[in-house]
Amino acid sequence: MKIVAFAASNSTQSINKKLVTYAASLIDGATVEVLDLNAFNAPIFSTDHEAQHGHPEQAKDFLSKLNGADAILISFAEHNGSYSAAYKSLFDWSSRIQKKVFDGKPVVALATSPGPGGAKSVLAAATASLPFFGATVKASLSVPSFPSNFDVAAGRLSNPELDAQLKAAVATLTA
Ligand SMILES: Cc1cc2nc3c(=O)[nH]c(=O)nc-3n(C[C@H](O)[C@H](O)[C@H](O)COP(=O)(O)O)c2cc1C
Fold it and tell me: Which residues contact 173 (CB under 8 A, 6 or more apart)?
């Protein structure tokens, strides 16, 4: 089984990347690839760019990674209650190439932020819209107050209750 995991963020310090990397490490018996959105740095989505230049290779490469997965793990960064611009643009390009971006695959959606809200707004938006793009959402989890609940040095959740919830969520991908 091949799992593709990524944070929907282009921050080199992304807390969602730290969370999704830990989450991916919990999946037994699977090959896991953690993507970095900076490796798919397409121009910001524009219908004018699309008409003039077609679809960027970076978006085709991103989609090809998703298409090669049996299951997908995403952790969403929240910017002003919604997706990061980097993810939204890459997702928009991907949806123009292949409307069902997630092609019927099982998806676990995570989100975290430094504050108590735990990026719940973007997680709600993502879990509501993912099925329209071919995702079968198996589980979702918001991790609030990332600095208090995640041990960055150890690379794992330090809150046992959240850790149990994360383990249960990722287990749905291989069940
Ligand atoms: C432009 C901007 C808007 C933000 N808006 C929110 C927000 O609406 N809710 C929230 O919980 N955090 C918000 N934050 C804080 C992010 O949750 C924080 O930067 C987090 O580290 C982003 O995830 P990442 O590290 O994976 O990129 C915002 C940050 C930026 C830069």
Answer: 3, 27, 30, 71, 73, 106, 108, 138
Alpha-helical regions (H) of 11-107: 15-25, 47-53, 57-67, 85-97
What separation in Å is there between the alpha carbon of 54 and the centre of ligand 1? Answer: 31
Q: Note if the pTM is more than 0.90.
A: yes
d(CA 15, CA 9): 9
**What is the layout of strands, in order, in the sheet containing 2-8?**
31-35, 2-8, 71-76, 106-112, 136-143
Which two tokens mark 21?
């990397």
Tens digit of pLDDT for each residue in 104-122? 999 999 999 999 999 999 9
**Phi/psi at 154 (5° precision):** -85, -15
Which residue, by CA, sits nearest to atom 24 of ligand 1? 14
- Which residues sit with their C-beta closer than 6 Å to ligand 1? 7, 9, 11, 14-16, 77-81, 113-115, 117, 119
Ligand 1 atom closest to residue 7's alpha carbon, by position in its atom list: 26
Helices and strands: H and E segment counts in the chain: 7, 7
- Tell me which H or E stretch contains 159: none
